[in-house]
Amino acid sequence: MSHIRGRFKKAADEKVAAYTSSLPFDWRLYRHDIAGSIAHARMLARQGIISESDSVIIVQGLEAIEREITRGEFDFKAELEDIHMAIEARLIEKVGEVGGKLHTARSRNDQIALDLRLYIREAIARTIGNFRELQRALVNLAEASMEVVMPGYTHLQPAQPVLLAHHLLAYFEMLQRDVGRFDCCRTRADVLPLGSGALAGVAYNVDREFLARELGFSQVSQNSLDAVSDRDFILEYEAAASISMMHLSRLAEEIILWSSAEFDFIELDEAYATGSSIMPQKKNPDVAELVRGKTGRVYGHLTAFLTTMKALPLAYNRDLQEDKEGLFDTADTLLASLDICTGLIATLKVNTEGAAKAVGRGHILATDLADYLAKKGESFRTAHEIVGRLINYAVKKGKPLPELSFAEYSNFSPLFGEDVYAITVESSLAARDTVGGTAPKRVAQAVAAAKKILGQGQ
User: Fewer CB within 10 A of the end CB, N or C, for the chain?
Assistant: First the structure.
């Protein structure tokens, strides 16, 4: 803690003051700090701990300070260490000693725990909103690309044909899980710590349920030691953000691949690409590459804070000051990355011909041939072996499967009939008519279901 007047006669060394100050970053919590202080002042008056007139003066002073900070007129004095002290000192400047009554029945320990929970709730609401925008862009592109067929890949090798819409909706599902994780985090952040004091509770007749209602919390913390030292909700936000950034990084990687000359599935909008300082032909996917790169930084914040927390005894320790910078950067990075990915998806152009050419490579209907033989009575393992030999033959002849003659097919199995030529990309897609499959009617159902989710705003 800072050198509070009374206990200390000697001022903190300038280096110590600079090293311990959190004001350069925790000023961002000013709205949350003031909201908590206003609720606290009203509760104090309601309980008869301070007078109603003092409460009114304090609240009016706090509201004026919030306007000063918002307008950029507030003088953040470094020697005041943190946003709590900065606001309290300014309050006393504005309203006199009555401002000093605000800190009755609370500690900076439960105060910062409150501010962070208020911040997390707000950050989660914004985060989920950005997820919804990206999901909407994915669904819009999927709906516009229902006729586009592309190779589905395993091991980055052509595997089976899928609809581009089906591929895009895979990311919708990933993001839906992300929304669920943040929703769960919001539930656990929705606990009021104010009233826990420094660590043991407070020696006043406070009304914590009133505070919870005023600040919109559904629960009140049940253990004061835990309440002031708990930062699980921050770790959960950073963990959920790390998984989300992993999903965005995977999407970014596919955009990078698909926009390359080798794939040629999409073209990036010029507003979301960059040029080269030396090679005039280049159209680089720098935006997607930065999403991929920033993912590591978010991972780092989670790992760093897990390491900070791993050996802290109860209750509050100054190590916990390290919770904020990583959290703020994580939220900023995730929000910006979601926003930029939304723009990338919303503006890219699909190259239907490039995707179709890729489908024609790699003997992508091989599995359908094995299924064909299996449906005619061959065991699937034997059918798999037969088609494998057939593929080797086609490769040596330099022919795609549809160009093999019926005699050539028959050399590998008597079960092949003329109907083997009915196996096409379209029949392959239609055959995957299971829930979650890539059959066009299933994908259309999935698009409708996704639009319903977005319409419900859940």
Answer: C
| 276 flagged as catalytic | yes
What does the mean pLDDT of the chain come to? 95
The percent of residues in the chain predicted with pLDDT above 90, rounded, is: 90
Rounded mean pLDDT, 29-52: 98
Q: How far apart are CA 416 and CA 382, in angstroms?
A: 14
25 neighbors 328 (Cβ within 8 angstroms) = yes
The CB-side HSE value for 320 (13 A sphere, CA atoms) comes to 21
Return the structure tokens found at 179. Answer: 């929304």
Burial label for 414, CB within 10 Å (0-12, 13-18, 19+), is exposed
Q: Which domains does the chain have, with CATH numbers?
A: 14-104 (1.10.275.10), 109-358 (1.20.200.10), 360-442 (1.10.40.30)
Q: Any catalytic annotation for residue 301?
A: no
What is the per-residue pLDDT across 68-79, written as a single tens digit (0 to 9) for each? 999 999 999 988
Give CA–CA dist 401/161, Å, rounded: 15
Identified catalytic residue from 51, 276, 379, 427: 276
In this prediction, residues 111-126 reach a mean pLDDT of 98
CA distance 378 to 376: 6
